[in-house]
């Protein structure tokens, strides 16, 4: 009886639903919004790294294939060349993640239920780093920038839960 449940769970197709599409496009838009908020605000490297991992798992399939192809290789080459001359302006390691990740790992991190669970873990870590960054819950120093950040995180949670619930 339990083996039937496990095999039926393994046969679920998470990639063909509207929720998957909403997760990919909505998650990408709000993760890019949060990256922009991070670059104009406190510039937390930990939050930037977490958001890039979120983008890696939730980036729309069509755009992901373009970045993993010849175009992505050229952009990665230009990023590395720019990093040689302007290392503070062009953090190249984050973009190269999209290009050089092995296919078996990239496919596993982007298919099935794995991206939803990974994105939930990333979002929890984002919340914890933001709470530490604003001074904790006791000494909270919120402003409009902080409100916008929480707005973006709430939408990321919405799209991730929507994907996992379908």
Automatic annotation (TrEMBL):
GO CC terms, sorted: membrane
Localization annotation: Membrane
Membrane topology annotation: Multi-pass membrane protein
Keywords: Membrane, Transmembrane, Transmembrane helix
InterPro entries per the UniProt record, alphabetical: COR413
TM ranges: 22-38, 50-68, 113-136, 148-165
Chief location bin: membrane
Pfam families: WCOR413
Transmembrane helix found in the keyword field: yes
Family named by the database record: Belongs to the Cold-regulated 413 protein family.
Protein name according to UniProt: Cold-regulated 413 plasma membrane protein 4-like
